[in-house]
Amino acid sequence: MSSYKDQKVITIGIVSELTGLSERQIRYYEERQLIFPVRTAGKTRKYSFRDVERLVDIANKIEDGVGTFEIRKAEKKKQSTKETRNRMLRGQINAAFKIRN
């Protein structure tokens, strides 16, 4: 079961109010592949509370002079490190319990 923070239920207008970002800024961050809302059948964007937190973090980094390319690059590196760590942990667990893949 996923956390309520991961449920994509918030419209772009409310996200704009919560973050202080314009709807255009939010769409721009989506275009730059920094945020990934879901789309309803009617093409309405829906965001989660984690997306709101991520947008605030992005806005703070932009304000500090970090570019969208650098933000995306750092996120990819973070994800890659997490995936590597997870593979290593699975390998250690498999070795400890003598599980063969």
Automatic annotation (TrEMBL):
Under Gene3D superfamilies, the record lists: 1.10.1660.10
The record's listing under SUPFAM superfamilies reads: Putative DNA-binding domain (SSF46955)
Its source organism is Halalkalibacter alkaliphilus
SMART domains to which the protein is assigned, alphabetical: HTH_MERR (SM00422)
Q: Which Pfam families match?
A: MerR_1 (PF13411)
Record keywords: DNA-binding, Repressor, Transcription, Transcription regulation
Protein's UniProt name: MerR family transcriptional regulator
Indicate whether Repressor appears among the record's keywords: yes
Residue ranges of the HTH merR-type domain? 9-77
Task: List, in alphabetical order, the Gene Ontology terms for molecular function in this entry.
Answer: DNA binding; DNA-binding transcription factor activity
